């Protein structure tokens, strides 16, 4: 068992699946020699928080304090910490530990740790203690899973980069989005809007595929060259065989065969959206054009640092609506209703207030 140095840290937790989140307190472990204590300033609300708080992926642990888009300031460091100092502006994403010895960890791909990385919340750490996420005032994290936030990025717009940003940066970099590549982003939500900004900054020709034309002006302002409504069946005919890459960020099941039809020969449809139910695929949709159906999960720690530098260099932050913690349940409903432009971010100062 780990000593709980901080025993009553204010937080917002879901007490049970689908129950509204409520104010509570949680323990945080003592600051170990490799740990930093972070005073959380902002925590983004990712759709994954909602999936897990509602136990849509199974195996959820309650009470659950969601939040893996964390930005804050270091207020204490363990005796062996070298990467961060008191006063540093830092972030924490979806991972707070991994085995550090398997081939994936050694390659800097801790998200694919063969022994199972430790998730920031809804998981167990190596000591067997529950992990609690960023809807809280403080968190204790090993320095190797903490990233510095570059000076040019404000903490509020940086917070969503820790999940939404890296989740789009990693596949766009891996599949080499860049000049001469036609990239489509499906779903202009938290992840999708980061995808448009990042793919545009990488030099790709970017298309948004959204359910309607409602967000078209935003899409173009964020960097999209083209914008099409998937609710219009003519879109699928018109864009047949167009794209090198399609990144699907949608949290619900889509018709995979219809989207595979939009790829050119050799194209790749990358799924980052994580719907609750399996999605059928017709193999002829792949065979006919040597197409690939792929998935991608967040990114490693080194790549997260690279992404933050890239975003700072290109002036990329998230488009956010900052809310007090007491409005978190309303924010969840609004995300589910598609009424967010484009990420809710909790002001952590409002979590402590009773
Ligand atoms: P979000 O803000 O809710 O955005 C999802 C977008 O998908 C919506 O804005 C909407 O865009 C579109 N959409 C929603 N319902 C749809 C439907 N029934 N049919 C077609 N389009 C629909 O969510 P998010 O935070 O970006 O997360 C998206 C998904 O990615 C979630 O499943 C989340 O769990 C997952 N995720 C995965 C990773 C990973 O590592 N792979 C990381 C983070 C999140 P339009 O209005 O433009 O159509
Ligand atoms: Zn997330
Ligand atoms: Zn590992």
Number of helices: 12
Mean pLDDT: 97
- CATH homologous superfamily name of the largest domain? Medium-chain alcohol dehydrogenases, catalytic domain
Model regions low in confidence, pLDDT < 50 over at least 5 residues: none
Radius of gyration: 20 Å
Query: How many DSSP E strands?
Result: 17
Look at the helices and sheets and give the structural class.
alpha/beta
Entry keywords:
12 helices, 24% helix, Quinone Oxidoreductase, Chain A, domain 1, globular, alpha/beta, 7-stranded mixed β-sheet, 354 residues, binds NADP nicotinamide-adenine-dinucleotide phosphate
What does this protein structure show overall?
Helix 4 packs across helix 5 and helix 4 packs across helix 10. The radius of gyration is 20 Å and the shape is globular. It has two domains: 207 residues, Quinone Oxidoreductase, Chain A, domain 1 (Alpha-Beta Complex), CATH 3.90.180.10; 131 residues, Rossmann fold (3-Layer(aba) Sandwich), CATH 3.40.50. It contains twelve helices and 17 strands. The protein has 354 residues and is of the alpha/beta class. Strand 1 and strand 2 form a beta hairpin. The strands form four sheets. Strands 3, 4, 5, 8, 9, 16 and 17 form a seven-stranded mixed β-sheet that branches. It has a six-stranded parallel β-sheet with strand order 12-11-10-13-14-15, with helices on one face. One zinc ion (ZN) binds next to loops.
């Amino acid at each position: 068992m780990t000593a709980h140095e901080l025993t009553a840290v204010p937080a917002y937790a879901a007490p049970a699946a689908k129950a509204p989140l409520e104010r509570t307190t949680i323990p945080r472990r003592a600051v170990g020699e490799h740990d930093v204590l972070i005073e959380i300033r902002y925590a983004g609300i990712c759709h994954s928080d909602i999936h897990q708080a509602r136990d849509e992926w199974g195996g959820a642990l309650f009470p659950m304090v969601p939040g893996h888009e964390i930005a804050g300031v270091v207020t204490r460091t363990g005796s062996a910490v070298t990467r961060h100092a008191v006063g540093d502006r830092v972030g924490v994403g979806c991972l707070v530990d991994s085995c550090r010895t398997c081939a994936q960890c050694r390659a800097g791909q801790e998200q694919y740790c063969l022994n199972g990385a430790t998730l920031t919340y809804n998981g167990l750490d190596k000591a067997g203690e529950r992990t609690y996420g960023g809807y809280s005032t403080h968190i204790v994290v090993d320095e190797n899973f903490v990233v510095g936030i570059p000076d040019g990025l404000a903490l509020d717009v940086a917070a969503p980069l820790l999940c939404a940003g890296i989740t789009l940066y990693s596949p766009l970099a891996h599949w080499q989005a860049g000049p001469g590549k036609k990239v489509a982003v499906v779903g202009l939500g938290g992840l999708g809007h980061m995808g448009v900004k990042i793919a545009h900054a990488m030099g790709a020709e970017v298309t948004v595929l959204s359910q309607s034309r409602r967000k078209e002006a935003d899409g173009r302002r964020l960097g999209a060259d083209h914008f099409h409504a998937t609710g219009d069946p003519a879109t699928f005919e018109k864009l047949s065989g167009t794209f090198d890459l399609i990144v699907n960020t949608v949290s619900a099941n889509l018709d995979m065969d219809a989207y595979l039809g939009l790829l050119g020969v050799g194209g790749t449809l990358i799924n980052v959206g994580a719907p609750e139910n399996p999605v059928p695929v017709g193999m002829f949709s792949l065979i006919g054009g040597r197409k690939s159906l792929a998935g991608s999960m967040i990114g490693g720690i080194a790549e997260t640092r690279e992404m933050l530098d890239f975003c700072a260099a290109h002036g990329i932050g998230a488009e956010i609506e900052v809310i007090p913690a007491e409005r978190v349940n309303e924010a969840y409903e609004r995300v589910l209703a598609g009424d967010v432009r484009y990420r809710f971010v909790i002001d952590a100062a409002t979590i402590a207030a009773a």
